[in-house]
Design a protein that fits this description.
The protein has helices at 2-11, 15-36, 39-48, 53-85, 87-106, 111-123, 127-138, 142-148, 151-170, 173-176, 178-181, 187-191, 196-215, 229-247, 269-272, 293-321, 344-364, 366-373, 375-383, 386-392, 401-432, 441-473, 477-490, 502-505, 510-515. With 516 residues, the protein is mostly helical. The chain is globular, with a radius of gyration of 23 Å. One of its GO terms (cellular component) is membrane.
Amino acid sequence: MWFHKYISEKWHFSRRVSAQIALLCICRFAEPLALTCIFPYLYFLIKSFETPESDISFYAGIVSAAFSVGQFLSSVLWGRWADVYGRKPMVLIGLGGTLVSLILLAFSTNVYMLISARLLGGLLNGNVGILRTMVGDLVTDRKQQTTAFTIMPAVWGIASFIGPVIGGALADPISNHPGFFGKNPPRLFVEYPFCLPPLVISLFLLWGMSLGFLFVEETLPAKINRRDIGRELGNKLYFILWTRWKQSGANDEEVEPLLRNSQGPDVESRNTATPQAPSDSDETPSFLTVFTAQSSLNFLFYGLLALHTLSFDQLLPIFLSYSVQGPDEQYLPFKFAGGLGLSSTTVGWILALTGGVFTIAQVVLYHRIAESFGVLRSLGFSAYLYPICYIGVPFLAVITAWFKYSLLSLILVVKTLAQVISFPASMVLINALAGPDGKMRGSLNGIATAVAAVGRMVGPTIWGFLFSRGMKSGYAIIPWWTLAATAIVAGVPVLFVTYGHEEDAKQDSPEEGESH
């Protein structure tokens, strides 16, 4: 697996840690695919249920909110269970839950079934927080964590590039690719024209579940010595592959780190060791110890950040797909409505290119910015880029074509830059609160996921309604300008956060100390 070698050489992690992070990336990859593939065709999917155009944004907001409702109801439990029963079982259950929700989504026949599928997807998956927890378990050095926590957002960026392409290209294949099927298209695509993207994404989920079961290590200290049947099978599979690899004269360094914890010869030593009873120091602290002044500030910012960023991500494809308003109905500079009238394929490519820019920026820019200016200063700067972007969006509907796409590109690049900085920086601050032993890291990330779910639940619902009302009343600026005001308020908690525990903050590295 070349990816783990790239991580090891670029960011100086050990071979074992690099291999495990690569596997976690694969497990993470399918979930944002499932989330983002629906964005290009959600407008057309809801419209296919004979929904009035002016109400589509409202129902789209509820569809997005349903996933977050499920996350809110279950993510704290998933995080707590990950601290008690282990990280790996919860990850595998989460992947299975996403798979079930995708199958239900593929065969939805009305908006209520669609909402139920998304709700189930949120309920059965707590992997957003758990996978971050596992990265924090694997990489404990604070400086290395600054880099490590950019990897999962980079995976999100890659998936958010591929997901919209899959969704835009494969949705309603009979209408979008009529020449491919001839006069007798498959009955499946006639009855369920939007089923193909979720079914294709399901294959990625099965791939992630298989690799996770066979090769991912448990990272919860109290459960490390527990027998892992999946790893035992993986070790046997590795032995077969390694034997053939050696017979072909290839270098075994490519596959060895997937399974070995050390450079020793016994690849199965970890999983066949006699389980040991955890000592008193392994006991999980009280759940209430998670809530401090600093953690509350971090949770508040993270929740508001999730609220306005997902609201934007939800509204933008609807706005791009919405029909164009004639100039006779416009009373500039404030009274106008309408969108850009783009097709699902075009919207998919716009979102895909944005995801590509996000991925490149995540890998190239974040750690350089954080090292140069510190985590806190970088976060404060990024927090106030968002309102600048949001204010300009509605005017895309009324400006000339040549300038329209230039402004859209600028808005998306600036918003991407803000997102590249703010999410990993916020995760670094939240995980730093776990302290050196990291015993509450799963709970911290579970609560962060739940708080973000509240934002993602409330945001799309409110702004979907505001978008609908704005279009009906002729004031397209209403949802976007209120979103900008919310982003301004969201930046306030950043002014009061510190890096880690108060006693740790005093011992930060120079660049981090300066960032405060």
